[in-house]
Design brief:
about 35% helix, alpha/beta, 2 domains, 7-stranded mixed beta sheet, about 15% strand
């Protein structure tokens, strides 16, 4: 509906209805020291033409992956999003939908969520998926609490090779959940299964990434087995776009599979919003956060979809809810479903193979020493011989963003640059990256 501003008469009527004289009285319980006392630094009103020019000027300050050749990854990836995704997402039935509390009015949305859950289960090798999560970080915290409920233990183990943002969010949530967090350091870019298993003794769960934050392929079956031998739930944080070439977490014994779904069907969007996914063994279904859509039949025998489980949400369970984040990301998860359906099994495999081939070609073309002697998939880390942050700044002046400086998150790796390759990059793009790095590192003209 069109916007109608609040008039002074409307304001007075609303204040009288709730029994206060001024807007200020609504904030009486907030200490004066915490309230802003002054005028906001807002300029004079602009005309429509002036506002348009101002917003255009602000927007021009952003540099996107279409204007700057980017090899950034580190959890958010520049994969191709086909036009069909926007066509599906912009249908009014999906675009305006919220929580489908009334199944008789929401069959299309419920079916879409059901199909999304099915796709996530098929890819991860799990039995049940929720209707999506807020992002790839919060689903990790949710998985920890699911594990605590299932095991009665309060220790969680994190591989140091998990995305630093994932680890930070888990550490932030842990005190509220009454959990303690133990991190297992990496050795040469990967986590040792023996050390992982030793740390997992007495733990509720142990979480690792495949591929890990460095792009390295962990010995995932050994890590999962080590966690389970220690009595902890094994949790894999995975990338959906790699599961066409990598084994599903359920196939090597994991109890939960989680991750950030952005790479599958969502644009970069300046880092969000995106969607997280969380899938598990059936034994954990009643502990999963959020909602789960199920298939049934109505009284006439016709197929129907309903919210089968939603008792872990705070609008029902309140303080006893599994998660204090009720929102899923239905629209963005639907984009993921459309993307995976568009690719199909063979397309997903070809996507993974292309990313792998481009990354291996880039390793050879750049000719920089690898930081880790481990196999990788679509990201890899090289040593630049000087602070990676300086290298990135110099490359950006030449219109190329060469990657991510992992020294921001890991001590002793200040000269390490992580380069990500997706199917959108070409061999000509890689040549351009190599030339720019040569110029920056060795003074060789591009």
């Amino acid at each position: 509906m069109s916007f109608t501003s609040l008039t002074p008469a409307d304001l007075d009527q609303m204040l009288r209805a709730i029994g206060v004289g001024t807007v200020g009285e609504l904030f009486a319980d907030i200490p004066a020291t915490l309230r802003f006392d002054g005028d906001l630094a807002v300029g004079p009103a602009l005309s429509e033409a002036e506002l348009w020019a101002h917003m255009s000027e602000l927007a021009a300050q952003n540099v996107d992956a279409g204007r700057e050749l980017s090899f950034l990854g580190a959890g958010i990836y520049d994969h191709y999003v086909p036009a069909v995704i926007d066509v599906v997402m912009q249908r009014g039935e999906f675009l305006t939908a919220y929580t489908p509390y009334q199944p008789e009015m929401s069959q299309g949305v419920l079916q879409a969520i059901f199909e999304y859950q099915t796709a996530i289960c098929e890819l991860t090798g799990m039995d049940v998926s929720n209707a999506s999560g807020y992002d790839g970080m919060t689903v990790a915290a949710d998985a920890c609490y699911v594990a605590k409920l299932a095991t009665g233990r309060d220790k969680v183990v994190l591989a140091e090779t998990l995305n630093p943002q994932v680890r930070q969010v888990v550490r932030t949530f842990a005190p509220g959940f009454g959990m303690q967090v133990v991190e297992v350091p990496h050795e040469g870019g990967a986590v040792d299964p023996a050390a992982f298993g030793a740390a997992a003794e007495g733990a509720a769960c142990a979480i690792f990434a495949q591929p890990n934050f460095f792009g390295v392929l962990e010995d995932a079956p050994a890590l999962a087995d080590a966690a389970k031998q220690a009595g902890a739930l094994a949790v894999a944080h995975v990338d959906l776009t790699t599961l066409g070439v990598l084994e599903a977490p359920g196939a090597y014994g994991c109890d939960l599979a989680i991750g950030e779904g952005q790479a599958a069907g969502n644009p970069l969007a300046y880092g969000g919003p995106h969607y997280g996914f969380l899938a598990a063994r059936m034994a954990l279904a009643r502990q999963l956060p959020g909602r789960i859509v199920g298939e049934t039949v109505d009284r006439t025998g016709q197929r129907a979809y309903v919210l089968t489980l939603q008792t872990r949400e705070q609008h029902i369970r309140r303080e006893r809810a599994t998660s204090n984040i009720t929102s899923n990301q239905t629209l963005l998860a639907l984009a993921g479903l459309a993307y995976l359906s568009w690719l199909g099994p063979q397309g997903l495999r070809e996507l993974g193979e292309r990313c792998l081939a481009l990354a291996e070609h880039a390793k050879a073309r750049l000719g920089l020493p690898p930081a880790f002697a481990q196999p990788t998939l679509k990201e890899f880390v090289v040593r630049t011989g000087r602070p990676a942050g300086e290298v990135i700044a110099a490359c950006k002046q030449r219109g190329v963003h060469p990657g991510y400086a992992i020294g921001r998150d890991y001590s002793g790796l200040d000269d390490c640059l992580m380069v990500a390759l997706t199917e959108k990059r070409t061999t000509a793009d890689i040549d351009r990256l190599a030339d720019v790095l040569d110029e920056v590192l060795h003074g060789v003209p591009a």
